[in-house]
Amino acid sequence: MVIKRREKHGVPPAFNLHIEPKSPIELEHMLSSLAVLGRRFQSYAKEELDLGRGDTAKLYVSSIKPGSIDISLIPDLYEAGKHAAGAVAAAGAGDVVETVKGFAESIQTLFKTFNKPVKEEAEAGVTVKDCDDAINIVKPIATAGGVQTFNVNNVQGDQVLVFNINSPQASRIIDNALHHREKLLLPETETHKQVALVWQKIDRSDARTVGATSPDKGRIEEIDSRPKSILFHEDVADVKSDIMGEALLQMVYYVDVEVVRVDDRIKAYRVVGYHGKEPLEDVLDA
User: Fold this and answer.
1) Of 119, 127, 117, which is closest to residue 43 (Cα–Cα)?
2) Which residues lie below 8 Å from residue 267, measured CB to CB, with a gap of 6+?
3) Given 61, 126, 177, 231, which is the most exposed site by the fewest CB atoms within 10 A?
4) Is the overall model pTM greater than 0.90, yes or no?
5) Which residue from 154, 136, 38 is spatially nearest to 88, judged by alpha carbons?
6) DSSP letter, residue 247
7) What's the CA gap between 222 and 196, in Å, rounded?
8) Where are the beta strands (DSSP E) in 37-158?
C-alpha cells in the first residue's frame, strides 16, 4: 500500500470494545486481552501500511466509560512520545480506517477459526501464537460471563463493522484453541509397520522403554542403513527376553516401530509390535 501524506481530519477511527459481564473481570485477564490486541494490531498495520524503519503502529486506550465496560482503541502510527496518542500520522485517513477495519476482521476470523475444531485444510496456517492470542482475547468474557461486542468507527464516527461473542462462544474458542495448541506442540508419530529389523548388538539388561538411547542396536534398512538404538514399548517389552536365547544376529525380526527423533535426526526405533522372524540367510537368498 502506498502511504499518503498526513491529512487533517477530526475523530480518529476507533476499534471499540463494549463488554457486559455478569461478574467483575479479573484485571490480569483484561490487561492480557488488550495487550494481545495491541500486539496483533502492531504487526497487522505495519504490514498493511508498509511503514518504514522507526515507524510503529500501535493501539492506545482512548476512553473507558462507566457502567458496562466500554473501551475505545485508537491507532497511532508513531510512538506516543513523538505525537500525542491518537494522532493518525504517516497515512491518509481512508487508509487508516481500512486498516483498523481489516484488523477487526482479522480478529473476527480468528474467533471463527476456533469457534469449532480446526479443520484439517486450515491447520497449516494456524500457529501456536494464534491459539494463545485467541485464548487471551476472549478470556475476560469466558470467565466473567456475559457478552462482548467489537465495532469499528470511521473518522465521521459512523459504525463500519460490528460483531460479538458471548460467554459460551468464548469458552468454546478457548477449548478448541487449547486442543489445537496441544496438537501443534506434539510432533506427529512416525510409525512403520512390519519392517525388517536386523540386530547389531543386544544387551542382557531389561528392555529400555524410556529415553532416546539404548545399549541395544539394530538396523532397519528401509528407514536408515545405519544402526540405531532399539527401545521397546512397555506392552511389548517381553519380546526382548523371548529372543535372548536365540541366534538373534542371524535372524530377521518383523516389527512395528515408532521412529524416535531428536533435532529432526533419527536416534532410535521404539518397537510397538512384533510379527515373527525368519533366518537372515533365507531373506538374502530370496
Assistant:
1) 127
2) 212, 213, 228, 229, 260, 261
3) 61
4) no
5) 154
6) -
7) 8
8) 58-65, 69-76, 147-153
Q: 186's torsion region: left (phi>0), alpha (psi -120 to 50) or beta?
A: beta
Give the three-state DSSP class for 8: coil
C-alpha cell read off for 22 = 455478569
SS3 106: helix
What is the C-alpha separation between 114 and 97, in angstroms, rounded? 26
Contact 189, 167 (CB under 8 A): no
* Cα distance between residue 236 and residue 220, in whole Å: 18
Identify the helix (H) or strand (E) that includes residue 183.
helix 167-185
Rounded Cα gap, residues 244 and 30, in angstroms: 62
For 120-169, how does the pLDDT look when each residue is reduced to its tens digit (9 = 90+)?
A: 656 678 999 999 999 999 999 999 999 999 999 988 888 999 999 999 99
Cell of 157: 464516527
Q: Chain-centre distance of CA 231, in angstroms?
A: 31
* The three cell numbers locating residue 18: 463494549
